[in-house]
Specification:
46% helix, elongated, 298 residues, alpha/beta, 6 strands
Length: 298
């Protein structure tokens, strides 16, 4: 029987904010961003302060790396049409929040926005999408590059290194087994299971830290309540979706019935007119597609 592990969103809420567990987040981010990430601290900002209503729907955490970059990780459970806009808003807040008044623009920090969603956002079949900014020549098609002076002053190699970078993980799109270390993390995000053979960065620590059996009695009770709430929310959402679809089907059936009844009344009116003109029953049947009984009853 597979070992039960804690859902990632609950782990962010309760366990991964502990400095001793930074290694788990560092492993996940290192695999995703393809670079070694060291978390210096977790920060509080307007972007990750949650209201009571938010808490069941979204979880986020803001990390500052050893080289002062910012990484905003957000987990979103419920569908939200304007989620792309909120991604932009959250990053925009960080850009201004962490530039002190009077500082030059060159002090703006590099920001990574990592978004883990459990609903069908947009149209796309991949399970990882990345957005980074480059300036491309409209006429030449070349990529605009930094000058040597800019590279030296700002200590970056590409213009894209200055602008925010977005990652969107549509984990429900991931199917099958994990064949790479990054896929091991995606598999865990989707299934809340860490297999014994998983060896991605941070996985060894996650295997132990995120075991349900390792929770205290109080933590396990809180986690069980959280999962019960998730089941309740999923049930409510499923019911709402079913009822909405049912109403649509009922409306369509009513429209079809109304069209059929209207068509029947029209055929009867035509048949009555044909009879008044003296046409025989066989001819009227061919014209209106009514039965002999219907025509003779007129």
């Amino acid at each position: 029987m597979p070992t039960k592990h804690i859902r990632f969103d609950w782990a962010i809420k309760k366990l991964l904010r502990n400095k001793a567990n930074y290694v788990v987040l560092e492993g996940f981010l290192s695999e995703l961003l393809h670079q070694d990430i060291t978390i210096k601290t977790l920060l509080e900002s307007e972007s990750n302060q949650q209201t009571q209503e938010d808490k069941s729907n979204r979880v986020d955490i803001l990390a500052e790396t050893a080289n002062s970059e910012l990484i905003l990780i957000e987990v979103q459970n419920n569908s939200q049409l304007d989620y792309f806009h909120r991604m932009l808003y959250g990053v925009s807040q960080l850009v201004t929040e962490y530039l002190e008044q009077g500082q030059e623009y060159g002090e703006i920090r590099k920001i990574y926005s990592v978004n883990i969603v459990y609903f069908n956002l947009g149209k796309g079949d991949d399970y990882i999408y990345r957005l980074n900014s480059e300036f491309t020549g409209v006429n030449t098609g070349d990529t605009l590059e930094l000058s040597l002076a800019q590279e030296r002053k700002f200590k970056v190699k590409k213009i894209a290194d200055i602008f925010p970078e977005y990652y969107l993980l549509k984990v429900r799109n991931f199917k099958g087994t994990a064949e790479t270390t990054l896929q091991e993390w995606i598999y865990f995000l989707r299934n809340s299971e860490i297999k014994d053979e998983f060896a991605a960065k941070g996985m060894v620590e996650a295997k132990e830290t995120l075991r349900v059996n390792n929770l205290s009695d109080k933590e396990r009770a809180a986690y069980n309540r959280y999962m019960d709430n998730k089941s309740y929310e999923a049930s409510i959402l499923s019911t709402q979706e079913f009822e909405a679809q049912w109403q649509i089907e009922q409306m369509e059936e009513a429209k079809i019935k109304a069209r059929e009844e209207g068509s029947q009344q029209t055929r009867i009116a035509i048949a009555r007119s044909c009879k008044q003109q003296g046409l025989d029953t066989e001819t009227i049947m061919a014209i209106t597609q009514l039965s002999r009984e219907d025509i003779e009853a007129l």
